[in-house]
Amino acid sequence: MSEIDVFISYKREEQGLAETVSRCLTDLGYTTVTDLNIQKAVDFGDAIDAMIRQAKLVVVLWTAASVTSRWVRKEAEEAERQGKYFGLRIGKLRPGTLPLAVRGNNWLDLSDGPVTDQLADIQAEIYRIIGPPRLAKPAAEVQSQLVEGDLEFYQVADKIGLAEAYEKYVEVYPDGVFVDAATKQAKGLRRWYAPVRRLPVLALTVALGTAAAGYASFQSMPSDIRPDPGTDERLQVTQSQLSAAYQELEALRIRLREALATPPAETAAGRRGRACIPAAADHTLRGRI
């Protein structure tokens, strides 16, 4: 499985704050991800729970705004349930505003001044809780980007909603964050429409990357073997939907290739950090995209 050191939960309107905290941890060498790209329509148990299960620690940014967010509270409670919760109290918070489950538990008070003046304190606490980072800064930056890409790929599969899409995710990310969720979804869908003949269009489109060819294949199927349109509305795949999914996947592949090909820092320290990535691991990462 992909290793996530820190998952950061925060209110969407405070993205800048989350990026500041994330950057200070990545600079130390921790693989850090946020829930920024998680579509809230996606089942909580699939996306966010998978991230929390994979993470060593969940850092929740508590502010006057985030204490009112049901998503932040939900993430904090799940992290506490799994024994991975750590809160940062930012600004003046009224007593009793935090979820009951996490009051008085692991937290760091940052209410005395700007967060930017207390980043060293945050780094020290994370180091104390989960130990030294596994990677140098450049490698941590790349690994964090790969986890974000993993998430985006899974959400494309989830948007399509067919077994073939989830199976393609497992093929591309065999040790991805969402392998268990994707496998479960694929098996459930296979059982559900087992009597319906396997639809070749999605396999063609996602595996070979040719949306138009896939659509044409579907259109050319004899009418007597096409899935009944009333069986499941998710099986009605249009050319535009397939094309959009393909474009998303291709954009993701390009972005990840660039992240791996370009050193995150052009300093001597950055080059030394990049050199710390084992050749075998680097080859494995490149092979997945």
UniProtKB/TrEMBL annotation:
Residues 235-262 form a coiled coil. SUPFAM superfamilies: Toll/Interleukin receptor TIR domain. Keywords: Coiled coil, Receptor. One of its GO terms (biological process) is signal transduction. Residues 6-115 form the TIR domain. It comes from the Bacteria. InterPro entries: TIR_dom (IPR000157), Toll_tir_struct_dom_sf (IPR035897). It holds the Pfam family TIR_2. This is Toll/interleukin-1 receptor domain-containing protein. The lineage of its organism: Bacteria, Pseudomonadati, Pseudomonadota, Alphaproteobacteria, Rhodobacterales.
